[in-house]
Specification:
Chain lengths: 554, 166
């Protein structure tokens, strides 16, 4: 940050406040608890000042004949009010400025602007996806009038435009705030949207040869204050007021964008970004946002199973865990391999590490996952918790280095038992017939794979939205996941399954709550000393120094 | 590419761009005028061409072309007629003048609002549009045919006027 900033005195609705120099008028009002309605203004984007919704009254200090501010009986400067309204989104505060956010003129302005905005807006709220989170609806109730004096025909504009593969546009609902245009230009660096035509005929579009197909396109849906841009994935699926919102993080890459998972009746309907300036600003990529459909899959593993001959048969948790324990006890040390996943939480990985130490094997690793990084949010590391796996010690400096030995050990027969947690072993080159030869293959997973089909014990576990826990992102920030839905059928939390496996080998270990796991983990890892799950908070804590691969700041 | 940019036009364009040293983007309007002057209208390919020339996205140029009514996206007739419809001309008979031109030039008078197609005679000889003030409010109704300006145009003068433009 810069040098200690100067504080300026500003009067808002008769009360004097102090704000840092450089604060926007609209932000100063918000800090003083005076909400100023706005559409085009967005704190993360430039301010074009085109919607006129944030009109307020502004005044400057009254100067005497000596060019010095005159003071009133209270010792505070007198204010010369500008006789016409001003927009509050495009100017900074200045010393002695006066602001009125509740005066009759301001109220009249808001009412007038609402009336203009609604002139060509269709009255289709009952079938509009934005209803319930629509600022036009909300401000209309708060600042508008119920009726309209407009008798003329509304302008017809394009509707149901597939402006990109994931976004549907209704131009009649658009109020021309231009947030989406500025987002695509300033944040997504893909200046694909624009306004064509003029006056009340103006409408939003992409160039006919281009599509809104950026990997960040769905952020335009989030910032659209009305129902003009809607998510083709979420549209018409669920009324937003029915959604239960759970704070979590995205697990599709190592950036760990903060999210809100919207669910109803144990089903995930959407993920939206949650603001965190230390991680993702207010955005997330489309890939991560839409990478949740598999959790709603009807193929989800729901019942523990054990192998009887060629068949996997359903069984109870206890008998599956007893069998897994017995199998593991048959082999010693390096006859056992553990393939874990950097999609697991720290708590799960820490318990898995304990298990590997208990059986005494050095054959343990995670399967690395990578893809192309962009300069915005997406990390080349597509595993959300590589740093966690490294810190806990389930993998080394280079994740995946021990996988070759494990695969060879399985082929040569030196490794007789494998514990696979959330990963399909065909990814490390093992074929189904090779997996079937294993004396013991204990698998935790959520969806069927070659590995689950070859298991001797199959333990159905939980998806990212079904568990509590923590992960460390690529910048070394420790963040929390929360449970938004329950796992299907008899499937259980991964950490509980691993804990029970440990118990089958050692007897009770006195861990009943995830908080206990976290406590034991933080006690054993110096970087985490003194932390608790609740202390991580909604925005995470910086745990280790930022690494070089971190995505560019936004 | 079907659109041919002659060398002479190219060099004029390159010169105009140098007149805006701060931002190439500012040359967008002059370039559109040059292109329309040369081709008679601005085709879609020209929009992309100008955008590439100025290192813009095509949408940035499309915004301008659709905003300003003086830019055409389809060819005009051999002779293009502009009739003023701003207040004093409207009161002096601008609307009737357009109708009379249409009648004598065989132009079918359909809808001609914002964004609608240019009104054109079947043989392509004449096209016509309403424009805003041509700066001769004391002598309405006024019109322009190509680059020629006519004041106080009486309805019965129309056939003779059209006759000049064959």
């Amino acid at each position: 940050m810069s040098a200690p900033s100067e504080l300026l005195n500003v009067q808002i609705d008769g009360i004097w406040h102090q704000f840092q120099k450089g604060t926007r008028v609209i932000e100063a009002c918000a800090q003083a608890g005076k909400f100023v309605p706005h559409y085009c203004y967005h704190p993360k984007l430039s301010s074009p000042g085109n919607c006129r919704m944030c009109l307020i009254e502004i005044g400057m200090p009254k100067l005497g004949p000596d060019r010095k501010p005159e003071t009133g009986t209270d010792g505070k400067p007198l204010i010369n009010w500008i006789p016409r309204p001003q927009i509050s989104c495009a100017q900074d505060i200045s010393e002695g400025m006066g602001i009125r956010t509740e005066s009759p003129m301001v109220k009249e302005c808001r009412n007038g602007v609402m009336e203009f905005l609604l002139i060509n807006h269709p009255l289709d709220c009952p079938i509009c996806d934005q209803a319930g989170e629509c600022q036009l609806q909300e401000y209309s109730v708060e600042f508008g009038t119920a009726g309209s004096r407009f008798l003329e025909e509304k302008v017809k504009k394009p509707k149901r435009v597939e402006i990109g593969p994931r976004v549907t546009l209704d131009d009649e609902r658009c109020i021309l705030c231009s947030r989406c245009i500025r987002f695509m230009k300033e944040v997504a660096h893909d200046d694909v949207l624009g306004f064509v035509s003029r006056g009340s005929h103006t409408y939003l579009t992409a160039h006919p040869d281009r599509l809104l197909d950026s990997n960040y396109s769905l952020n335009t849906v989030d910032i659209c204050p009305v129902g003009a841009l809607t998510s083709s994935d979420f549209r018409f699926k669920m009324r937003v007021w029915f959604l239960k919102e759970t704070k979590s993080i995205c697990t599709s890459c190592a950036t760990g964008c903060n999210t809100i998972i919207g669910t109803r009746q144990n089903q995930v309907f959407r993920q939206t970004p949650r603001e965190n300036d230390a991680v993702n600003s207010a955005w997330m990529c489309d890939y991560g946002r839409l990478n949740y459909h598999y959790v709603n899959s009807t193929d989800r593993l729901q019942t523990p199973q054990i192998r009887e001959g060629q068949e996997l048969v359903n069984t109870t948790w206890n008998s599956a865990l007893v069998k897994a324990g017995e199998e593991l006890k048959q082999f010693s040390k390096d006859g056992i391999a553990v393939v874990a996943s950097a999609k697991m939480t720290n708590e799960e990985l820490w318990l898995t590490k304990n298990l590997t130490e208990l059986v005494g094997t050095s054959h343990c690793d995670i399967i690395p996952r990578s893809g192309a990084a962009d300069d915005i949010l997406m990390s080349a590391d597509r595993n959300p918790n590589t740093l966690g796996a490294q810190l806990i010690g389930l993998t080394g400096e280079k994740p995946g280095l021990r996988l070759k030995d494990i695969a060879e050990g399985v082929r040569s027969g030196t490794i007789k038992a494998v514990l696979a947690l959330g990963e399909d072993l065909t990814q490390i080159g093992l074929q189904a017939d090779e997996l079937k030869k294993l004396a013991s293959l204990i698998v935790l997973d959520i969806l069927p794979t070659e590995t689950t089909r070859s298991a001797t014990v199959l333990l159905p576990s939980s998806a990212f939205c079904e568990k509590r826990g923590s992960m460390i992102n690529i910048k070394g920030r420790l963040q929390r996941l929360h449970r938004a839905t329950q796992p299907p059928g008899a499937a259980r939390d991964d950490w509980e399954i691993v804990r029970d496996l440990i118990q089958k080998l050692t007897g009770s270990n006195g861990i009943y709550l995830i908080e206990d796991v976290f406590k034991q983990m933080t006690d054993s890892i110096p970087d985490m000393n003194g932390l608790s799950l609740s202390r991580i908070g909604d925005k995470g804590v910086q745990l280790v120094e930022e690494t070089e691969e971190a995505p560019a700041a936004i | 590419m079907k659109m041919e940019m002659p060398a002479e036009l190219q060099s004029r364009i390159d010169k105009v761009i140098t007149e805006y040293p701060v931002s190439k983007r500012s040359a967008a309007l002059p370039l559109l005028h040059l292109v329309q002057e040369h081709f008679g209208y601005i085709e879609d390919e020209a929009i992309s061409w100008i955008a590439a020339k100025l290192e813009l996205e095509p949408i940035n140029v499309l915004e301008l072309v659709t905003f300003y009514p003086m830019f055409r996206r389809e060819p005009a007739g051999k002779h293009h007629i502009r009739v003023c419809r701003t207040l004093s001309c409207a009161m002096a008979g601008g609307y009737e003048l357009l109708d009379t031109f249409c009648k004598h030039a065989n132009i079918s008078r359909q809808e001609n609002g914002h964004g609608a197609h240019l009104l054109k005679s079947q043989d392509g000889k004449y096209s016509i549009e309403f424009v805003e003030c041509l700066a001769s409010c004391g002598f309405g109704p006024v019109c322009m045919i190509n680059d020629d300006f006519y004041e106080s145009v009486a309805q019965d003068e129309v056939p003779q006027l059209l006759g000049k433009y064959q």
